[in-house]
């Protein structure tokens, strides 16, 4: 029988170490795990490598980690936006590293990491600045770049509902980068609106199976985190 452990939000991320690689779900402000990010800002873990679709959609998203000097490298598709000034300033000072990845390639690199595929070839970004220095091979008369999978030490994801085992259901546009990121980390922490009992979720609606989810934060009942041990 799986034992469960309840903690508060801060304790759910308390074991995060400096230098960790963190995958952050969301697309703009949709499906962004804001409460987990806020807790990490309070914790102050530094030298993070953060993987996210974008950083500038909301001031209390990934941009807050950058402003708090917690990020050494950001891997994303869309680094610009209303809250990207701190990133630009740090890039100019050389205190942060930026890797821009085409959006489809970013999603596939994360998916590959979750599937145990170390690398793959794609025609995206061939003969562009984003492809410079990458291995190129020709298949059937077309050039392809070798792209390496992305895996994380932690993943922060946002879902609508979960059962006590951690099966996740997403609401509308929450289902963006969250499902693939949930599969590609050693420890996946999900913040959800509601945690229900086993059997109360229609199996056909489950997007992320519980095998990928290690900890749950229920937003409507602050102070509880469900951890599979």
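Sequence proposed for the structure above (229 residues):
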């Amino acid at each position: 029988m799986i034992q469960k452990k309840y903690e508060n939000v801060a304790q759910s991320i308390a074991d995060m170490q400096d230098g960790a690689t963190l995958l952050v779900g969301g697309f703009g402000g949709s499906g962004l795990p804001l409460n987990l990010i806020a807790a990490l800002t309070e914790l102050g873990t530094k030298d993070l490598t953060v993987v996210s679709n974008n950083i500038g959609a909301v001031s209390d998203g990934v941009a807050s980690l950058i402003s708090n000097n917690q990020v050494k490298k950001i891997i994303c598709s869309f680094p610009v936006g209303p809250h990207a000034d701190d990133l630009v300033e740090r890039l100019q000072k050389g205190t942060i590293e930026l890797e821009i990845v085409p959006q489809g390639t970013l999603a596939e690199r994360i998916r590959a990491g979750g599937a145990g595929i170390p690398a793959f070839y794609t025609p995206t970004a061939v003969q562009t600045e984003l492809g410079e220095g990458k291995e190129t091979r020709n298949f059937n008369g077309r050039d392809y770049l070798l792209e390496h999978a992305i895996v994380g030490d932690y993943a922060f994801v946002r879902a609508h509902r979960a059962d006590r085992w951690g099966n996740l259901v997403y609401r509308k546009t929450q289902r963006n980068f969250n499902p693939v990121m949930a599969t590609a980390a050693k420890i996946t922490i999900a913040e959800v609106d509601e945690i229900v009992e086993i059997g109360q979720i229609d199996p056909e609606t489950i997007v992320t199976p519980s095998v990928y989810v290690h900890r749950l934060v229920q937003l409507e009942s602050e102070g509880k985190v469900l951890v599979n041990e």
